[in-house]
Amino acid sequence: MAEPRRPQPYQPGAVSLFFVVKAGVFAAGFWAWLLVLVLRTDAATGAHVLAATGAITTTLVAVVLGARMALQQNAAVRHAETKKLLVDISWNAFTAAGNAESSGKVVPFPSSPVDDDRSTRNGGDRVAVFDRSGSRDRGSNADRRR
Question: Which of 38, 61, 104, 143 could form a disulfide with 23 if both were Cys (CB 3.0 to 4.6 A apart)?
């Protein structure tokens, strides 16, 4: 039997890719402008500084946005795998619970709470921290609280 078709996980798409491509186009334009300025003139001018600054900045922006998009895609794939794993675990536990009498693979959950060491430490008498009944005296502050 073929595995049922599962919905595709969220993938950062067109908007993220648009900004990465836009930053890449601007970076390529600034680098081309800087190359033209360098080949045409001998002295550095303000246009050279502007072109170099634009080229470096837009290149860094393109790299950061590309890395962010790649991390988002990776996180989306991991999230989808985790959800699939949780559904599989849940389904397997559900189906195994029906077969619990015939198979020893499933450990049933206890139906009644088990007394642990903390509840029997003081003879089973547990007192809340903010008990106002006076059974637990904290010195002179107990009278002020009442």
Answer: 61
Q: How does pLDDT run across 48-82, given as a tens digit for each residue? A: 999 999 999 999 999 999 999 888 888 888 888 88
The span from the CA of 44 to the CA of 41, in Å, is 8
User: In 3D, which of 62, 23, 54 has the Cα closest to residue 37?
Assistant: 54
Instruction: Report CA dihedral (102, 107, 108, 112) to the nearest 10 degrees.
Output: 140
Token look-up 């360098």 returns 38
CA distance 13 to 10: 9
136 neighbors 127 (Cβ within 8 angstroms): yes
- Give the pair of three-digit tokens for residue 4: 């049922």
The angle that helices 46-98 and 14-40 make with each other, rounded to 10 degrees, is: 160
pTM, two decimals, is 0.53
In sequence order, which residues have a C-beta less than 8 Å from that of residue 9 and are 6 or more positions away? 76, 77, 79, 80, 83
Q: Please, which residues have CB within 8 angstroms of residue 24's CB and are 6 or more apart in sequence?
A: 62
Give residues with Cβ within 8 angstroms of 37, minimum separation 6. Answer: 45, 47, 48, 51
